[in-house]
Design a protein that fits this description.
308 residues; alpha+beta; 10-stranded mixed β-sheet; 5-stranded antiparallel β-sheet
Length: 308
């Protein structure tokens, strides 16, 4: 497949840019000729991806973390439609959190990524579409590859993104979670699933999952599959700082699904709006683009994913 790499040079704490000559030489040996472009700022990968698809590239590879992957996924779409439904999304993981790759058991070794990209194997890949209110208060639409959530998870993502991440992904997210839980207060949110009746739910966090992990290894949706045509939704209610301190192991090994305050469901669409008492912010693949109200819709098999 004609391959194009969308490279975030700031990923891996800047090592991707510093080591690009070495990385590109290995890519060239494995794949032959390839195109590439470097991102320079927020949402730049969307523009680069769209142009690469219009130029006839058949496999677009995100070189970076979950945020870069999110932007590349958004670049596959324009005016609500996939530019090329047969085009493949690939990943060379270079990020701090690395939650998307965990769903597939992919490691951080470049050789493993190149073996995956060199193979001809792809599979259908579901994509989430999020309609929401952006940080400027305007209606907006964004696509996501892994997980969109709201509640304390957005506060945590903001804390982590404002930090240096010098502690590494796992510790940075744990520290961010502790700080987020101190700041966050439970919100009442009105939910509607697949167009059904509305229900008011007390929300610590709601994760609408295509993949299985968020927050640098939190096993939030253990049964999620990225090509089954359904979101796996996890609702956490009435959890506080003491719960995380005492029981955080369960968040990382998946046993939280058996806790009293955890509820799970599966759906194609979910509508959420705050009842009252302030804004409820969104975390979309580790970024914080806006707030509720929102509607999340799954697009089954919208594009292809490079697998091994």
């Amino acid at each position: 497949m004609k391959t194009f790499l969308v490279v975030n040079p700031r990923s891996a704490n800047g090592q991707t840019g510093k080591r690009w000559a070495e990385i590109s030489a290995q890519v060239s040996r494995a794949l032959g000729d390839f195109g590439h472009g470097f991102t320079q700022g927020g949402m730049d990968a969307v523009r680069i991806t769209r142009q690469a698809l219009l130029d006839g590239y058949e496999c677009i590879v995100a070189v970076g973390g979950d945020g870069t992957l999110n932007e590349v996924t958004n670049g596959f779409f324009e005016d609500g439609k996939a530019l090329n439904p047969n085009a493949a999304l690939g990943l060379i993981p270079r990020g701090t959190g690395g939650d998307f790759r965990r769903t597939f058991g992919w490691d951080l070794e470049l050789a493993s990524s190149l073996e995956r990209l060199r193979s001809g194997a792809t599979e259908p890949f579901d994509v989430g579409r999020l309609e929401f209110t952006d940080n400027a208060g305007q209606p907006a639409t964004r696509y996501f590859a892994n997980i969109a959530s709201f509640g304390v998870s957005a506060v945590v993502a903001q804390e982590v993104n404002q930090s240096s991440k010098a502690l590494g992904g796992h510790l940075s997210f744990m520290w961010g979670t502790l700080k987020g839980l101190v700041k966050y207060s439970e919100r009442q949110v009105r939910l509607s699933v697949d167009g059904g009746p509305e229900e008011v739910v007390s929300v610590t966090a709601v994760a609408v999952a295509n993949g299985r992990y968020f927050g640098s290894g939190m096993f939030v949706a253990p049964d999620a599959v990225t090509h089954d045509g359904l979101f796996d939704v996890t609702i956490w209610s009435n959890y506080g700082l003491s719960d995380f301190v005492l029981k955080s192991k369960g968040v990382y090994n998946g046993s939280h699904v058996n806790w009293k305050g955890t509820r799970r469901l599966r759906c194609r669409t979910l509508r959420a709006e705050p009842v009252e008492g302030g804004d409820v912010f969104l975390d979309v693949d580790g970024e914080t683009p806006g707030r509720l109200p929102c509607t999340l819709t799954l697009l089954p098999g919208a594009i292809r994913l490079k697998v091994l």
